[in-house]
């Protein structure tokens, strides 16, 4: 799969690489944060339609997310968000690297990552779609039924369909075939609103609530975060449960404080010859020796805090295996299968050790059952 990155100029105009229009294409557009089953249904339709017409299956991915750009601008006198906020978007479910990896698995041939700016957003949906037909040779546009685009988000499915009816392109509207809508509270917790069950909005809420079990159903795979292993206080090793501590700048949305069953995948040192896309796929595969069942703790180590003391949230993953593995400086991936329990303060090290042993046993039980299910499917 080829990946291109484009940035609009100050007036919002994109200079699309000429090679993108060398062959007619089937295109979809979005952020695809989380790559949930709704996204997957959309992208599979792109690949299937492209195969029928011998077109190129292509996705345009906006980065940063329109939500981040507009929400920041609305509260900062219409200024673009700073680069540091873009790199650490608190609402981002999944890093771009992982979205692209999954898109390649689904069979896309081309992804164009478009830097989303206020000037770009000010262009009408008509102007944007005309650009796609002229510069990307878009024959067919594939969208979900809730899609909107263009200045003021005025380009809904009805308006886009009317433009398609002029013969400029074909429009294919995909239903994600999910369970329909669900109700979520607004930020203040007072109002409630309807969203698609298979949506990034719903998925984000589930992860923030620690409901990784339901998130797995929407994703079709475990939610993940990844980052570098750093030195901690080595308290877990002393207790007999050594952990890999993730650096604070890890990628992926952190679930709520609690203890989870899942997997720890060693992606190797950044300089490792296996630290390639091909090598990574081998490490992530079921049965890989780099893929280890893990009891994952997210929290502030309440048992060891003095009265009035506070510390930042940390993620610690205890690889449930008979020997300790040195992962300092390695990039790792942590996958969340199921929530085991909430965090609590223990009376001392002994009751904590007993609970950690129970967490490890339950983790092995759940991961073995999941691996058997994965192998059947």
Overview of the structural elements:
The chain is an alpha/beta fold. The chain is 33% helix and 25% strand. The strands form three sheets. A six-stranded parallel β-sheet has the order 1-4-3-2-5-6, sandwiched between helices. Strand 5 (138-144), helix 7 (157-164) and strand 6 form a beta-alpha-beta unit. It is globular. The two termini are 25 Å apart. The model has no long low-confidence stretch (mean pLDDT 90).
Short description:
With 377 residues, the protein is an alpha/beta fold. It has helices spanning 37-53, 66-75, 83-87, 96-106, 118-121, 125-135, 157-164, 200-208, 212-219, 235-239, 277-284, 349-376; strands spanning 2-6, 25-30, 56-63, 110-115, 138-144, 170-174, 181-185, 192-196, 223-230, 244-246, 258-268, 291-299, 314-319, 331-341.
């Amino acid at each position: 799969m080829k990946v291109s990155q484009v940035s609009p100029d100050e007036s919002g105009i994109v200079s699309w690489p000429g090679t993108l229009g060398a062959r007619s294409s089937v295109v979809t557009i979005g952020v695809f944060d989380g790559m949930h089953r709704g996204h997957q249904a959309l992208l599979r339709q792109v690949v299937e339609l492209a195969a029928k017409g011998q077109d190129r299956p292509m996705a345009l991915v906006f980065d940063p997310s329109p939500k981040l750009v507009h929400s920041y601008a609305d509260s900062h006198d219409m200024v673009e968000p700073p680069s540091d906020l873009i790199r650490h978007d608190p609402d981002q479910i999944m890093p771009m690297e992982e979205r692209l990896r999954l898109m390649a698995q689904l069979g896309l041939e081309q992804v164009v990552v478009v830097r989303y700016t206020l000037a770009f957003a000010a262009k009408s949906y008509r102007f944007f779609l005309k650009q796609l037909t002229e510069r990307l040779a878009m024959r067919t546009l594939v969208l979900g039924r809730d899609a909107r685009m263009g200045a003021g988000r005025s380009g809904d499915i009805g308006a886009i369909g009317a433009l398609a009816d002029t013969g400029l392109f074909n429009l294919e509207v995909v239903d994600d075939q999910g369970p329909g809508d669900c109700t979520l509270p607004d930020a203040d917790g007072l109002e409630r609103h309807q969203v698609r069950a298979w949506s990034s909005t719903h998925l984000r809420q589930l992860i923030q609530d620690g409901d990784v079990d339901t998130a797995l159903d929407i994703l079709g795979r475990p939610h993940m975060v990844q980052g570098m292993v750093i030195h901690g206080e080595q308290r877990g090793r002393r207790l007999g449960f050594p952990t890999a501590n993730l650096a604070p700048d890890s990628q992926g949305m952190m679930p709520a404080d609690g203890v989870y069953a899942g997997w720890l995948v060693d992606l190797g040192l950044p300089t490792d010859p296996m630290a390639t896309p091909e090598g990574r796929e081998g490490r992530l595969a079921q049965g890989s020796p780099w893929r280890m069942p893990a009891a994952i703790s997210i929290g502030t180590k309440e048992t060891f805090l003095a009265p009035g003391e506070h510390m930042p949230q940390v993620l610690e993953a205890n690889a449930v295996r008979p020997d300790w593995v040195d992962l300092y400086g390695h990039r790792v991936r942590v996958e969340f299968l199921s929530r085991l329990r909430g965090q609590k303060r223990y009376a001392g090290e002994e009751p904590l050790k007993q609970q950690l042993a129970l967490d490890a046993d339950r983790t092995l039980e759940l991961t073995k059952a999941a691996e058997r299910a994965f192998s059947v499917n």
